[in-house]
Amino acid sequence: MRVRNKPWADDFIKDHPEYIVEDPEKWIGKWSQKFSKDQPIHIEIGMGKGKFIIEMAKKFPNINFIGVEIQKSVIALALKKLVSEKLDNVILVHTDGAGVNTFFNHHEISTIYLNFSDPWPKKRHAKRRLTSPKFLDSYAEVLKKDAPLVFKTDNRGLFEYSLVTFNNYGMHFDYVSLDLHNSPENEDNVETEYENKFSKKGPIYKAIVRFNNKKED
């Protein structure tokens, strides 16, 4: 997702340290201090403008949510929504999602969401896909044992690649849908901005998988 530069973004981010973190490595092992309650933590990597994570936080107040996004103008738009909602169970992290194992402890996270990640369609860019083996390594470190990784995309090529990668990694498949919006499970689906806009143009694919073969610490 690319948006135009927002001249107000820097100042707005600085004005709301209660909702946004720009130095996540300093909070490893201390994330509960950023929330009003010590609850399970779910993270969304590449959260875009924040519709999904904010709606999830409203729907599940007994869970703490962390949205990770690299683009400053995008995260500033999400921050605007969060400030207006005044939720106490959402924190936004302005950083690259490639390093989740550098700012979360082992087995600290209860669920990871990957929603409509960049497909990086060229073969030489496969290692940049958020479902590539090097990213799965980092997720396996931070997820609690038997915790789910929830993946949605509208890109058939990325979905097929991801299913193969999950299988080769030895993951357990809880759920796979080739057309989520025409499935009974869609009743509980929380949409992203992108999903709301593009689901009319083609199917949405979804998988829920678990690292059932992770090595014991």
Automatic annotation (TrEMBL):
What does the record give as the reaction this protein catalyses? guanosine(46) in tRNA + S-adenosyl-L-methionine = N(7)-methylguanosine(46) in tRNA + S-adenosyl-L-homocysteine
What general EC class does the enzyme of this chain belong to?
Answer: transferase
Keywords (A to Z) from UniProt: Methyltransferase, S-adenosyl-L-methionine, Transferase, tRNA processing
Please name the pathway.
tRNA modification; N(7)-methylguanine-tRNA biosynthesis
Q: Which residues bind substrate?
A: 122, 154, 192-195
Q: Does the keyword S-adenosyl-L-methionine apply?
A: yes
Name of protein: tRNA (guanine-N(7)-)-methyltransferase
